[in-house]
Amino acid sequence: NQQDENPMETPREWQFPTVSRPLGGQGVGGSGGMDELRQAIDAMIAEQLRTKPDALHVFDSAAVETTYERMESQEFPGLLELQHRHFFDALVNEDAGRSKLSQIGIPGDRPFLTSTLPADDIGWCWADESDCERLGVKVQMESDKLDHDKMLANFHPIPAKNLRGKPLDDILKKYGFLRSNAAVSQKPLRTVARFAGEVARGQLRIWERRSASERRPSELSPGYSEDGGELLLLEEILTLRVRSAKGNFFVCA
């Protein structure tokens, strides 16, 4: 880790540590869902924060805070995306040992940079609630769980048996993904073949709405079928709100 004098003064898009993880279609309420979430959080701590999971006390109560947001996918243009965010709170474990805590700027709530080639450096800092607001990081989330059914209105999960082989090929062709070497997303670059592989392995979950009433007036585009059907990506996102003994939040960009 590299020291960074004042990363908050560098123009960046700040957020809490966040990761997208497939949850086996069960989510928090399913059998073993909480264990699956906790395993994903431990992996995120190791991969992003580069320290051991026991450096933090993570509160994995079943009453985990969640929000839903529906939008046009930035990663997969032409597809709707419903992001289901799970927020977990955590405190720094001051007894974890100096080597583990120094990886996250403790003691002293120090800022630092990590490098994950070929991506740009990631800036990390500890920010109080007012600094979080200035950086555009929303500390308190308003759950819109009541709108969940509305956001998924008339959408149904595509059975797993239809998400591999010829059935999956037929679905992709129906919704405008015709050439296996065509790009589906740019960042990261994914071809239709790779996209299909991620769907088949459960890394991406897709839902379908038939005869959508909100059809775009333009000509057929990816994500829409000729009979008015529509695809939606359902993405499970885990977000970790870590606080230090000083009450600062751990944010990155």
Provide a compact summary of the structure.
By secondary structure, this protein is of the alpha+beta class. It has helices at 33-49, 98-102, 129-135, 148-151, 165-174, 192-200, and strands spanning 2-3, 18-20, 56-59, 65-72, 80-92, 112-115, 121-127, 155-157, 183-186, 189-191, 205-209, 230-243, 249-252.
Helix count equals 6
Annotation, overall tally of beta strands = 13
| Portion of residues within helices | 10-25%
Radius of gyration: 20 Å
Element string (H = helix, E = strand): EEHEEEHEEHHEHEEHEEE
Structural class: alpha+beta
| Overall pLDDT confidence | 80
- Most strands sheet: 7 strands, mixed
Q: What is the first-to-last residue Cα distance? A: 15 Å
Question: How would the global form be characterised?
Answer: elongated
Percentage of residues in DSSP E strands: 25-35%
* Parts with pLDDT < 50 across at least 5 consecutive residues: 25-31, 216-220
